[in-house]
Amino acid sequence: MMKKNKHQNQSDHFFQLVYSIVYLIPKGKVTTYGAIAKCLGAPKSSRLVGYAMNNCHGIIPKVPAHRVVNRNGLLTGKHHFSTPFEMRELLNQEGVDVINDQVVDFKSKLWIPDL
DNA sequence: ACTTTGACTATAA
DNA sequence: GTTATAGCCAAAG
After folding, report:
1. If you count Cβ atoms within 10 Å of the first and of the last residue's Cβ in chain A, which end, N or C, has fewer?
2. For residue A56, how many other CB atoms are within 10 A of its CB?
3. With DSSP H G I counted as helix, E B as strand and the rest as coil, what are the percentages for chain A, rounded to 5?
4. A96 or A115, which is more confident?
5. A36 CB neighbours strand B below 7 A
6. Are A66 and A90 in contact (CB under 8 A)?
């Protein structure tokens, strides 16, 4: 009788939850940390979303972290990729134009996870 | 157990 | 338009 589990022992429960949302981001679209956090029921934990992404290196399947930008449409996490240009490259391949580390027509490309 | 950190956001000046 | 400050909360040290 698993009585030792007082409350989901999944240490990275929050991380997995974030990843599951990121996987849902359609190709050619982007979303924000706050949108993901809000979808998780913790709109004020936007920082934790970014924190989770910092741990996404080596996650299988690959996490499309390049589709997650801040609320301004700025590629704040580009420095966490293999190369600062990789994030822009990936977005460009999906039809998302990026100029000066900012998504062009960000408002149009924005996608909000559906609950 | 306490302190620091961080891929954020909202508000104020 | 920009810059500064505060709030936020879980993971890592």
Report:
1. N
2. 17
3. 40, 10, 50
4. A96
5. no
6. yes
